[in-house]
Amino acid sequence: MDYKKLIIESGKKLIDSGFTIETWGNISAKDEETGLVYLTPSGMDYCNCTTDDVVVCNLDGEIVEGHRKPTIETELHLSVYRNRPEVKAVVHTHPIYSTVFSCMGEGIPLLIDEAAQALGAPVKTANYALPGTKELAEECIKALGKEANACLLQSHGAVCVGESMEAAFKVANVLEVTAQIYQLIKSTGKDFVPLSEENIKAMAEFAKYKYGQGK
């Protein structure tokens, strides 16, 4: 796989999806064979980036290829890979509805079938820490735990992970839709009818083992 090309295409997708604006947000992918991580550069327009702008480093953060400064959230990305070996892609977004809940310090429950299938566990909001700091990376890891595929960063945005870039973007999509639905429910002054733990588990297993072709 051409990981540099994947990063460039994913950066443009991040903008086109409306998950961030300007140069906010960042993306990475891990090559399972080499253990190397490919990252978006810091503060550059994703629509104008080329494969030469992609930065490659190892899990210790040592840059092995690239002349650009990597994303300020490099430690956050690397911390996810070190703590969740199954993760192969991390997408840090700044979506509107999800960020509303992050600003309130609230999590997002698995209130729809799609969330139960894709998000892994109820989405928590990490305690606030300044962008680009080791503290933020640590809080992100705590909020993700070992099962969740997404967490919110207080007053900042969201972190979505997956076993592929496609999976990570699916998580980002489902998270934002779920947040929007949750916000609309709250605006009625009422509460949602929760899914049972049994049905949440069934939905997760359905998505993993039955949904789609070849399963």
Automatic annotation (TrEMBL):
GO cellular component, as recorded: cytosol
Domain Class II aldolase/adducin N-terminal: 5-183
SUPFAM superfamilies: AraD/HMP-PK domain-like
Keywords: Lyase, Metal-binding
Domain of life where this protein originates: Bacteria
Stored Pfam families: Aldolase_II
A biological process term (GO) from this entry: pentose catabolic process
Lyase among keywords: yes
Keyword Metal-binding: yes
GO MF annotations, alphabetized: aldehyde-lyase activity; metal ion binding
UniProt-recorded name of the protein: Class II aldolase/adducin family protein
